[in-house]
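In the design runs reported in the main text, the only information available to the sequence generator was the tokenized backbone. The following block is the verbatim input for one such run; it is reproduced so that readers can re-run the procedure and compare outputs position by position.
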């Protein structure tokens, strides 16, 4: 056997070394896609504490993991989508708000949203809201714009299955600084729809959304003061109770007798904050709006006891009471008044009261006043 010359042997050894290095490089370059696939595969199957461990490993891969995570968000399985959301949160937790990677991720999420199913859409909306809430004064680069695009998609599709998450994102978007003007109309439409949601929790979210600047929906909130659910009535009272333009003070009084103690307390606080309501009016307001006619009649005794109160407004209200005995008592009290002239009140009852007895009584006092 004839051995190669020394020169040739050196060449072959060198070539073999280069080949080994190239092979090692190929293996190394292929390592990231292989690890990405493996980590994502394990993340999709993970549960409980395992999810956090795999999310941490994926975060170590950086941006290479983003396409795979977006693919997981297209799955219908809520656990898989929740795991993907956790990994995205871990991946971005060290990014500064002005990191250019934010804009790329936000754009990708907006583009991927239409392809996602309900589970993935909820996770996307929830995670974007969390990113915006983390530091409203310094929202991540591009996140506001992407959130507006996604919420516009929700409005166009009338996607009620993700209504709650969309309302939360809208609130986070409006709270971020500066709030994007182009998103106000979209958020307003979401709030308007949410006020009639079948879910009480979403009605509450929608009410809270109306408090942001530019919503101009408080008059639409007022009917929810009569909602069957106490948590909705509480939220509505917080929204419109302090706003005379949404509900007049006189119309707010019945909620002093709401079945829910928190609603009653909020109603009282709202009344006391108004310029046209004084603390001394509160006992009278409770009496005059009582569901029991016998209690409403006690207003007359209260007015006689406290002569500092102007009786005209209270007697006028009693003259429109649903109980004829209360209206009759109001007519008698008005006829005996010397502080204010309430002849028009008596005449209106004489001419228009649905009860013949009250009407005759009012005519009697009118005739007697004319004789005098």
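Verbatim output:
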């Amino acid at each position: 056997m004839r051995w190669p010359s020394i020169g040739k042997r050196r060449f072959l050894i060198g070539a073999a070394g280069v080949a080994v290095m190239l092979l090692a490089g190929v293996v190394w370059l292929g390592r990231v896609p292989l690890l990405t696939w493996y980590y994502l595969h394990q993340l999709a199957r993970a549960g409980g504490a395992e999810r956090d461990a795999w999310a941490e490993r994926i975060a170590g891969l950086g941006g290479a993991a983003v396409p795979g995570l977006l693919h997981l968000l297209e799955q219908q399985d809520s656990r898989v989508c929740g795991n993907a959301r956790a990994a995205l949160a871990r991946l971005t937790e060290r990014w500064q708000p002005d990191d250019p990677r934010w804009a790329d991720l936000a754009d990708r999420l907006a583009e991927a949203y239409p392809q996602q199913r309900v589970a993935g859409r909820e996770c996307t909306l929830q995670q974007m809201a969390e990113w915006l809430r983390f530091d409203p004064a310094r929202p991540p680069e591009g996140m506001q714009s992407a959130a507006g695009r996604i919420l516009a998609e929700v409005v166009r599709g009338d996607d009620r299955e993700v209504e709650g998450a969309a309302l939360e994102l809208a609130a986070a978007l409006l709270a971020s600084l500066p709030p994007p003007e182009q998103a106000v109309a979209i958020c307003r439409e979401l709030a308007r729809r949410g006020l009639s949601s079948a879910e009480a929790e979403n009605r509450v979210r929608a009410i809270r959304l109306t408090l942001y600047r530019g919503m101009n929906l408080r008059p639409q909130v007022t009917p929810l003061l009569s909602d069957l659910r106490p948590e909705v009535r509480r939220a509505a009272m917080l929204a419109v109770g302090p706003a005379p333009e949404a509900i007049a003070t006189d119309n707010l009084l019945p909620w002093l007798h709401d079945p829910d103690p928190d609603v009653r307390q909020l109603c009282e606080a709202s009344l006391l904050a108004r310029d046209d309501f004084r603390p001394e009016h509160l006992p009278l307001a409770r009496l005059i709006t009582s569901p029991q006619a016998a209690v409403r009649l006690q207003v007359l005794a209260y007015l006689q006891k406290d002569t500092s109160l102007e009786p005209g407004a209270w007697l006028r209200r009693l003259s429109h009471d649903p109980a004829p005995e209360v209206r009759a008592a109001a007519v008698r009290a008005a006829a005996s008044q010397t502080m204010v002239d309430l002849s028009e009140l008596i005449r209106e009852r004489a001419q228009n009261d649905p009860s013949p007895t009250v009407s005759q009584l009012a005519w009697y006092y009118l005739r007697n006043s004319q004789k005098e």
